[in-house]
């Protein structure tokens, strides 16, 4: 409880927030903003949709207004889309002080990004891979040695070696930053992992630590269902469920999660062939196509989004009524983040997980973790069987199209190139 005026924020900040319709801070904002303003390092842990970005953006912008220079703050985040979203929030909140932001992510022109950095923007929001590449080449003369704030958003994913392993890139970036005593470090995350606990223990600066009571659990008003089905008719079920739900609730938005980029592309094409207006979101897509897909879904111009787990974390998609898990995620925390796209801000929502006989033990372990039993979602299997042959045929067609296009080959070639350059693979 309380207001922004209680948090030692300047009048211009409180007034601007009021004009934007923000009068009450969320718990993570209320608890973390004062210690950050006092100069303490901060660990904030709270679930997606709880206002984490403003919890670090507000104090950073206030400090920037007192001593404006570039580069003042570096924000690192695991995904490109999240980087753009954070940049939008900084621009939105920082309008009265004409804040200059710069987004440094893969999929965009590297030289342009280097030029933007040379202009010394106040806030740089980056994914580790691209920023590390810019620092490695260093002919671009990128300087980060005077920054006051380092923010790790979705810190658990950035620091977890099992989740993409950013270790090498982070080491390059950290070595370009000022000494620790001159730098204020802010870590924010939706889940408190063992890795984050280790970082907390190792910190020499006695950071302020705040954790929401309900960080990783699924929300009460989410109706969590499963369908037990044979593997070979999974896609028939998916097409049938989408058709059934959109006929019953034409205004609903549905997010479908799957585990690989290739599968994501196949399902998107399959749903389009089945007559749905549908967009996909995965990391092999060019960045402008990813942003266009996200924009189309956010503005409700299309009701179906098929995505890999890239889209499950942190993205600001305001209302999703249904989440469908095309596969059972390997980790309970990934399930929590996926289904966390629906039933937000007190609204109801539905999640449906497609489960084969090979997934049952995984589902049971997940149920133990979230302390909730999934209920069965009733489907008329005869209706599914009517469309099954057609669906399987269309799926085979999409797989052949992708094979012809050498889908994903470019990424493999780039990976091999990098290994050759590092001397890890003999060329020939």
From TrEMBL:
InterPro entries: DEAD/DEAH_box_helicase_dom, DEAD_box_RNA_helicase, Helicase_ATP-bd, Helicase_C-like, P-loop_NTPase, RNA-helicase_DEAD-box_CS, RNA_helicase_DEAD_Q_motif. GO terms for cellular component: cytosol. A motif (Q motif) lies at residues 2-30. It is an enzyme of class 3 (hydrolase). Pfam families: DEAD, Helicase_C. Transmembrane segments: none annotated. SMART domains: DEXDc, HELICc. Residues 221-385 form the Helicase C-terminal domain. Residues 2-30 form the DEAD-box RNA helicase Q domain. Keywords: ATP-binding, Helicase, Hydrolase, Nucleotide-binding. Its EC number is 3.6.4.13. One of its GO terms (molecular function) is RNA helicase activity. Gene3D superfamilies: P-loop containing nucleotide triphosphate hydrolases. Residues 33-210 form the Helicase ATP-binding domain. Belongs to the DEAD box helicase family. This is RNA helicase. It comes from Ciona savignyi.
């Amino acid at each position: 409880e309380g207001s922004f005026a209680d948090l030692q924020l300047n009048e211009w900040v409180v007034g601007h927030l009021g004009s934007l319709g923000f009068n009450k801070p969320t718990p993570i904002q209320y608890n973390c903003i004062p210690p950050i303003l006092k100069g303490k390092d901060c660990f904030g842990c709270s679930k997606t949709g709880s206002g984490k970005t403003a919890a670090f953006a507000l104090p950073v912008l206030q400090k920037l207004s007192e001593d404006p220079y570039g580069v003042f703050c570096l924000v690192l985040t695991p995904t490109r889309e999240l980087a753009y979203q954070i940049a939008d929030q900084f621009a939105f909140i920082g309008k009265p002080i004409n804040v200059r932001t710069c987004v440094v992510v893969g999929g965009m022109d590297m030289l342009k990004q280097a030029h933007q950095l040379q202009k010394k923007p106040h806030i740089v929001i980056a994914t580790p891979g691209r920023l590390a590449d810019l620092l490695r080449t260093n002919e671009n003369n990128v300087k980060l040695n005077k920054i006051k704030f380092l923010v790790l958003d979705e810190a658990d994913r950035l620091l977890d070696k099992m989740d993409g392993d950013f270790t090498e890139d982070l080491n390059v970036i950290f070595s370009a930053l000022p000494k620790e005593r001159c730098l204020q470090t802010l870590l924010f995350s939706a889940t408190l992992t063992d890795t984050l606990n280790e970082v907390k223990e190792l910190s020499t600066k006695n950071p302020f630590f705040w954790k929401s009571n309900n960080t990783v659990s699924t929300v009460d008003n989410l109706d969590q269902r499963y369908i037990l089905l044979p593997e070979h008719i999974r896609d028939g079920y998916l097409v049938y469920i989408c058709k059934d739900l959109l006929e019953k609730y034409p205004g609903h938005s549905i997010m479908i999660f799957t585990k690989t980029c290739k599968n994501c592309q196949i399902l998107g094409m399959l749903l389009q062939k089945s007559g749905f207006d549908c967009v996909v979101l995965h990391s092999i897509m060019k960045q402008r196509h990813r942003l266009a897909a996200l924009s189309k879904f956010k503005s409700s111009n299309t009701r179906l989004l098929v995505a890999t787990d890239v889209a499950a974390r942190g993205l600001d998609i305001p209302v999703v009524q249904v989440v469908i898990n095309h596969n059972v995620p390997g980790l309970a925390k990934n399930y929590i983040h996926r289904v966390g796209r629906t039933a937000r801000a007190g609204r109801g929502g539905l999640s449906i997980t497609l489960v084969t006989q090979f997934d049952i033990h995984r589902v049971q372990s997940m149920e133990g973790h979230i302390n909730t039993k999934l209920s069965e979602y009733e489907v008329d299997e005869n209706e599914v069987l009517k469309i099954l042959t057609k669906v399987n045929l269309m799926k085979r067609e999409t797989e052949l199209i992708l094979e012809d296009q050498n889908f994903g080959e470019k990424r493999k070639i780039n990976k091999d190139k990098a290994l050759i350059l590092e001397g890890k693979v003999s060329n020939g």
